[in-house]
Design brief:
Number of strands: 2
CATH class of the largest domain: Mainly Alpha
Shape: globular
Oligomer: single chain
Number of domains: 2
CATH topology of the largest domain: Recoverin, domain 1
CATH architecture of the largest domain: Orthogonal Bundle
Structural class: mainly alpha
Number of helices: 10
Radius of gyration: 18 Å
CATH superfamily of the largest domain: EF-hand
Strand content: under 5%
Length: 197
């Protein structure tokens, strides 16, 4: 498997702690069945996804849910990371403050373009929100620089502030910008559609 978020979410502990709550295990089975219907993950990928989910969700508390601290442990992001916050919000689709197995699977399927019948615009919304760090409905250079800095840090890459600014400037040059010099959702979609065509 390529170095995707799915493969990065493998914990170092080879032992998969058992989920102690029967309800959570039953819920996992229902979620697994739903994921088979809505994703293109292979049976092997779904099995590995479930193993990884169980490991991650038991890092601090074996309750069958991933909280922000457990996700942080796996991603390797700083406590105040915009990347971590955006990733957690992307995965916690019901905004419950925890990620269940279904949300984890669907989020990774969208991230890896392994969904069935999810309109492009829905995927674009997810990625747009991931980069709109301050949540104002536009991606500013500050949003992108913050996301790049945090993403590089989570990947243990040292990139200078000057290089991050240059990368953000080069990225913004590829978009039609608003009068405020930001990327709105319409411009984001247009660029995304052109990139996949």
């Amino acid at each position: 498997m390529s170095d995707t978020l799915l493969s990065r979410c493998q914990c170092k502990n080879p032992q998969s702690p058992p989920i102690t709550h029967t309800m959570a295990a039953a819920s996992d089975a229902a979620h697994l069945a739903r994921l088979r219907e809505v994703t293109t993950f292979t049976p092997e990928e779904l099995q590995q996804l479930q193993v990884n989910f169980r490991r991650i969700s038991a890092i601090h508390k074996p309750n069958g849910l991933i909280d922000r601290n457990e996700l942080q442990s796996v991603v390797g992001a700083a406590e105040n990371s915009a990347f971590l916050d955006s990733l957690f919000k992307m995965l916690d689709q019901d905004k419950s403050g925890a990620i269940d197995f279904y949300e984890f699977g669907v989020g990774l399927a969208i991230y890896q373009n392994k969904t069935k019948a999810v309109p492009d615009v829905d995927r674009f919304k997810l990625f747009f929100k991931l980069h709109d760090v301050d949540g104002d409905g536009e991606i500013s250079t500050r949003d992108l620089e913050t996301m790049l800095k945090d993403t590089f840090a989570a990947s243990f890459m040292r990139v200078s502030d000057e290089d991050i600014r240059s990368l953000a400037t080069a990225t913004f040059a590829k978009f039609s910008l608003t009068p405020r010099g930001t990327i709105d959702f319409q411009s984001f979609c247009a660029h995304a559609r052109a990139s996949i065509a």
